[in-house]
Write a structure and sequence with these properties.
Blueprint lengths: L1 E6 L2 E8 L2 E7 L4 E6 L4 E6 L8 E7 L4 E6 L4 E6 L6 E6 L7 E3 L5 E5 L4 E5 L5 E6 L7 E6 L5 E5 L4 E5 L5 E6 L12 E6 L5 E5 L4 E5 L5 E5 L7 E8 L4 E8 L4 E8 L3
Antiparallel strand pairs: 1-24, 2-3, 3-4, 4-5, 6-7, 7-8, 8-9, 10-11, 11-12, 12-13, 14-15, 15-16, 16-17, 18-19, 19-20, 20-21, 22-23, 23-24
């Protein structure tokens, strides 16, 4: 099953909380767009101070009913407790510019800091729990996800590589490394998602595709090879609904397409 959500603007992130989808757009000042899981528009949430640029990811925590948005221009995480009538909004100030976000066990937030080559873990109250400095040679890491074994899968856009690193930030294995569209190649990977079986979905941005890798980072397939647009910048796996959301951009028309696919029949 595949369907799509056309959006006027460039999608920076998609996530689900309870029975609704939340979408953030590049250059869309102070707004989170809310949809049903069937992609019907519901409302918008105003987030004062979000700004027209700098917001680059959104993630939901089901345990504490919160949305987290990273703002690399203002070095902060916006925290939103959404409600139909009004939403409580707070902010955490960081010392590093936050890029990609993902959730960890116990409701902890994993923040990828591309400019300082670090992963940072925060508890639900915004307290820094630990900092992981990635090994030399890894650069411009835009997003990371913790794996079941405790390590992390990261995407390194500049070197067109996806890596698994251990708890100390040391590379254990990798995929890619030479920019291109051929075998074992990626071109500017920007986002990753991991399903319940440990398979890794990679937003292979400049190749306008989603690459599926095995838990050991071996090539498995290309997902939606003929349905995405010019660039694919964000992937999100909703294990509860068993769906993949892939966001692709069409720059000349200033619009995006969020393609939704059922993962298991």
């Amino acid at each position: 099953m595949t369907h799509s959500l056309p959006v006027r603007g460039l999608v920076e992130g998609v996530t689900r909380l309870a029975s609704e989808l939340y979408v953030i757009l590049k250059g869309d000042s102070d707004q989170i767009h809310v949809y049903t899981t069937d992609c019907q528009a519901v409302r918008t949430i105003s987030v004062e101070g979000l700004g027209k640029k700098g917001v680059c990811d959104i993630v939901a925590c089901q345990q504490n009913n919160r949305l987290y948005l990273s703002n690399k221009e203002k070095n902060c995480i916006h925290v939103v407790a959404p409600k139909p009538s009004s939403s409580k909004i707070t902010k955490w100030t960081l010392s590093d510019a936050p890029y990609g976000l993902s959730m960890m066990p116990a409701g902890h937030l994993l923040v990828t800091c591309a400019e300082t080559n670090r992963l940072r873990e925060f508890n639900p109250r915004g307290k820094l729990v630990r900092t992981i400095t990635l090994e030399t040679g890894i650069s411009h890491t835009l997003h990371s996800v913790q794996l079941a074994g405790g390590g992390f899968v990261i995407c390194c856009s500049v070197v067109s590589r996806v890596c698994v690193v251990d708890r100390e930030g040391r590379v254990e294995r990798s995929y890619g490394g030479a920019s291109g569209a051929g075998e074992r190649q990626l071109s500017w990977p920007t986002h990753v998602a991991v399903d319940r079986d440990g398979f890794v979905f990679v937003a292979d941005c400049d190749n306008a595709r989603v690459v599926l890798l095995s838990p050991t980072l071996e090539f498995a397939s290309v997902v939606l090879p003929n349905e995405l647009q010019r660039r694919t910048n964000h992937v999100y796996v909703d294990d509860f609904a068993d769906r993949l959301y892939a966001s692709s951009r069409v720059f000349d028309e200033r619009r995006s397409l969020v393609t939704v696919v059922k993962l298991h029949n």
